[in-house]
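Subject: Sanity check before I submit

Could someone independently write out the structure tokens for this chain? I want to compare against mine line by line before I put it in a report. The sequence has 636 residues.
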Amino acid sequence: MVLRSVATRLALGVLLGSAIVLIVTGGLMLSHTREQMLAQTEQEASAVSGWAATRIQGRLDAVARVARVLAGVLKTRRDEAPALIRDTLAVNPEIVDITAAFIPHNGAAREADAAMARRAPDGALSMGSRLADPETYWTAPWFVRGLNCEHGCWQSPFHMAGRNDTLVGYSVAIPGATTSVAGVADVTISLGWLQQLLGELNKPDHAAAFVVDADGMFLAHDWTSYVGTRGSKPFVTALKEHRNPVRITPEMGGRVSEPVWVYLVPIAGTTWTAGLTMPEREVLADLRRTYYVDILLGLVALAGVSLIALVITRRMMAPLGILSDRAEDVARGELDFALPDVRRKDEVGRLTRAFDQMRRQLAGHIDSAKQLAREQERMASELDIARQIQLALIPEAHWLADDGRVELHAALRPASAVGGDLYTYFALGAKHICVMVGDVSDKGIPAALFMARTITLARTIATHARSPSDILGALNRELCKGNDTCMFVTLLCGVLETETGLLTLASAGHEQPVLHAGGSALFVDVETGPALGLDRDARYPVRVLTLLGGDTVLMYTDGVSEAHAANQKLFGSHAILDSVARLQDGATPEAYVEQVLGDVDAYVAGAPAYDDIALLALTWHDSRATEVPLDAVAHS
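---
Independent answer below. Compare away.
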């Protein structure tokens, strides 16, 4: 009952509309704020990672300079290589070992050709040679790669026996005096300082810093269990594709328990990358708290707005409650009541005054409607009488001659109460039968009157003429008299000689009849003249058929051929021909009419009748025939 009130529905509408606006606006603000927070976090993470990358690059550049200077000195002081590398190691405490390895002459190497100075974990220095390595040093990957590093390059990280930390070497080619390359100077450092540097970074809460090489191997990580392991597939893919930042989730195959954002900064001069990982939950934590507070405040505001709207609309809509009660009185037919005096000129006041005026006018309209209903009832009664009179002019639907030679069946279906289609038949003396099927140009009462006039004149004129041509000519002249409205009728007239089966046909603009003879159906080509009632001097040629026993002629109006359903496609003359052809020899005239009407009804599928329909089937029975009848003979 409460929801039936306009005021309540209006308040609910305001509440719903405001809620939709709040949700849409809040969603857009959330999306925009989320993008801003992600961008801000990216800037902070990039700054931290960039600072770490700069520190790392400075440390590595210092080591690279040592290796490049040493390689330049060894170009001219090869014989002093052991002493040079020992002195260099002594003054660079961050270096673990230094190697000066030369290409052996004629495949024979001396210990001095691969001198190595090494610093033990306790700081003690020792000298050695790469000839003691399990692998021949001049075929080792670090040496081969170093030969091709004219300006120096970092090798892949590795582990050394007796040390727990990860090592990495910087190799640079030693130029030769007579050749382009004489050997490789390699400087190795420990990456333990990387782990210490990551711990000194001023990172956001819940963030984790790392350093990774080009293959995705973690060189250092705040989570020490990751050091020495390879990153997940989505992480390595993003690293190789240089995507930054990248979002990694457990569903993607990442080594994480929740979605995280990874921010990457390449370390110049190396193939390493410094980065920072941050859980998405922590990045957006402040955003969620702010959004929840805003939503709560918005809901409180919505409730207040809805309450105010409800109070205001109830006061404004109070007069409408009275009008609704009076409207229910009107619905029950009670028009004798008074409305409250409304002095306001707003929509409610105008509605009240208009309703009162409507009430007075409605009483007058009801009286007029009752009078109109009586008139319509009288007209319907008169139309029904007219229909009965019209049908009385039409002979019986079925007729069989006394001698049994002629049998016919007809049907008439007006599209409305009365129509303009017609059929008739009557005897012309003892040996001739006249049959007619016609279609008046209009519909309704005018067509029915013109149809009645046509049938009456046809019966009168046919008694003085035996030829269909003469009948149509005389009938045409009579219908042209006083025909100021230019109405006309198409008519097919036939005269059958009952003893011989000789059928003479004449057409005034009508549809061609169908002949069913010898098991086949065909159209009878009757040369036609103009419709009756238009040209006083019109002539109507005749066509003569010699019917054999059992032959049937079907005459119809265009209401059959032009019947159509919702697709507006006509039934068509050929469909009539197919319908007749399906009948067996010896079928009764009634079967012909019912077959065609049934096919038309099935075609239109219940659609309203488009035009009047008239059908007449005539069968000639030759009682003298003792053999199988041949096709009917048609001649002029």
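---
OP: Matches mine. For the report I'm noting this point. The chain has 13 helices and 25 strands.
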